[in-house]
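Next up, sample data.

:::
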Amino acid sequence: MSILPEQRKAHLLSRVAEYGKLSKKSQFGGYSLMVDEVIFAITADNEFYLKGSGFAETLYKANNMDAYVYLKKGIPITLRYYRITQAIWRNSAKLNQYIDFAYHYSTQEFLGQQKQPRRIKDLPNLGIALEKKLNQVGINRIEELRTIGAKACYLKLIAQPKQGNSDLLLALAGAIVGCHRSVLPSQLKMELLNWYKELSVKSY
């Protein structure tokens, strides 16, 4: 923590003590600061930068806080970390609020990333059996499923249209938009069912 001036270090330690134990690791030419694996700030060149997640980033930009620019092999890379200005350091109430925002929104972002499905089987309506079938027709990743779309995935899964069913089509659509097939948006559901009916008629 010697990278921070002593007065700022003391304030930081006092504030984050409410969240948990502060730890650090070497990163981005300085140190990233974290509590329970949630990185919410970095220090570099005796400056303190708060992570801009969610609403916090909008707030920091509105208050003219400069983004941290990291040089990687001579190439400048702008990161979502914003420098606390001298004016903010002198305003304890605002400083505490900004630190709280950084931790709060960084935690939300961290938890959201943890909950993101990593495999097709983790999506709504799908399971290991359907994941295997999708793999067999060349769809191995969630991104591929979303890019191809429900209709094309449906056609890939069935050898002949009459062997499929509307539940499978709606299940694929629900997986793509992130909901159970029973609560698909009505307009989308109607469009898919009409398409399915047309496809079924053509198959006979």
